[in-house]
Specification:
Blueprint lengths: L8 H15 L3 H10 L6 H8 L7 H10 L15 H39 L6 H12 L2
Helix pairs in contact: 2-3
Length: 141
């Protein structure tokens, strides 16, 4: 029985790059996501990893798989990486990111309306054109 071929750091790096590119994530963004998981990564860390110049620690590999939305064994190139599934993962990631951005925007808008209400209460006379804009913002959340 022959042993399976060894997975090299270069092979893993190519796979990481493929996954990152299919998801539409920049090297800087990948580094930021890894930092969010507790790793001291920078854009250059991603470059070195993708070129196979820097081996991954197991904890990094586990978190990298999470960030790239794949199973850990996919980083080694094991199994088939179906392009259509990578595309779905990329679209899903962008949708989830857009939802988070929209939630932050909704919270900011609610806070702005609240401060606008307070400002309006303390203002005795508001000109008609400004009042109509204020009313529109406060009645259309």
């Amino acid at each position: 029985m022959t042993a399976p071929p060894a997975t090299t750091d270069a092979q893993i790096g190519r796979t990481v790059q493929q996954l990152r590119e299919h998801l539409g994530i920049t090297q800087s963004r990948l580094a930021e996501d890894m930092v969010a998981h507790g790793h001291a990564w920078h854009q250059q860390t991603v470059v070195k990893t993708e070129k196979g110049l820097r081996p991954l620690r197991l904890t990094e590999a586990c978190d990298l798989a999470t960030v790239l939305h794949v199973e850990l064994d996919r980083l080694t190139g094991a199994g088939q990486m179906r392009p259509e599934l990578l595309a779905v993962r990329g679209h899903l990631l962008r949708c989830e990111e857009a939802e988070r951005t929209a939630e932050v925007a909704r919270a900011a808008a609610a806070a702005a309306r609240s401060s606008l209400r307070a400002a309006v209460k303390g203002t005795p006379e508001i000109p008609g054109d400004l009042k109509s804009r204020v009313d529109a913002v406060l009645t259309d959340p």
